[in-house]
Amino acid sequence: MISQNTEGKLLAADEFTDTAESLAKLNIRNATPKITVEKINSDLSPSPNENSNFSHDEILNSLEEIDDQPSEGASNSRLYEIDRHGFIHEKQLEGNDPIAVPVEVLRKREKKWLDMFNSWPQFMEKQFDKIKQRCRKGIPPAVRATAWKYLCGAQHCMTNPNMMHLFDMLNRLPGDQKWNDDIKKDLSRQFPNHELFARNGFYKKTGQKDLYYLLKAWTVLHPEEGYCQGQAPVAATLLMQMPLKDAFYCFIQICEKYLPGYYSPGLEAIQLDGDILFALLKKHCYVGYKHLKNQHIDPVLYMVEWFMCIYCRTLPWSTVLRVWDMFFCEGVKVLFKVAIVLFRCALGSNQQLQRCPTMYETVERLRKLPPQIMQEEFLIQKVVALHLSDEELERVHCKVIKERKFKQKTKLA
Questions:
Q1: Which CATH number fits domain 268-412: 1.10.472.80, 3.40.1160.10, 2.60.40.2470, 3.20.20.70?
Q2: Which of 29-43, 88-102, 177-191, 286-300 has the lowest mean pLDDT?
Q3: Which of 72, 75, 113, 314 can bridge 143 by disulfide, Cβ–Cβ 3.0-4.6 Å?
């Protein structure tokens, strides 16, 4: 992990401031589009109003000049430190963020993962439950990037003669000017307090450049879909863990295999999964379900940041990594389980609901979740304990599809 080499390093405040065909065709699920990509983009982060018209070379050159001005109010008298995840914080008297897992345990877990890498096909075929168990315990940081690549299939793509040069080929192409401009506007917004993306940080603009190259390559591969703002945090999270090329192949797997249609125009898939989550809440958190239904709260109001960004804009970072460990192993079901647990803990009792008499208070509570329910061990234990079978998820999926088709026919009648 990039941040490991600089753990605990202190900084003065002025040292930083805030072609080949598609790997797989996206499976657009039947749904009536209700929300545009532009609406989702504005919800995630409002774009500047200026009309940019840069050439490809100008965009690359301008990355050298992004956010070079020091932060307002920066003071040399304040010291900052980089935590074990690479995030920059004001130095606390208590010292660095402690590592929860003892070093001896980490070393043993690392060896187990290395052994699995050496016999990966056999483990996937005959001992998948063992892999799932180890992902739920948390993948050791030293092998997390490699584990993610193996789990999602990126490692196979990178060693496949027909796929291994795909990124290099895409990266040589200029891309569509519209998507290039949209990507450029979002670069400085992605985790500005992380050492990889911080202005004037140790890595200067390396992180932003890599983020640009990754997202641009995606738009070249999928020009008809282009860029969705929800993709940038996902790509940035991958870049915090691994080199650019590795991150690209993992990103492709996320967008095409794990979350197909999530970032497509119309966002049919995210709307469909929102309805699926709402149906699951009826069984697993009825109090919260009834509250949302009475207040007519559309699932998309909370699904965008939770599912599209795979919780990387919602949860504390140690919790994010644990969720991603399980997500790469078990798929989108993990995102549903996390959401159900969050609803149970935030809107699962009458006392909690009394604090949310209107839609505004309810949505605000979901956007600003209580810190204690997002704590790593607390949340992960509840997610693992929650039973949500593939059969139940598929059954609800089919039911929601039928209901949506019926509503479409009713509207057309």
A1: 1.10.472.80
A2: 29-43
A3: 113
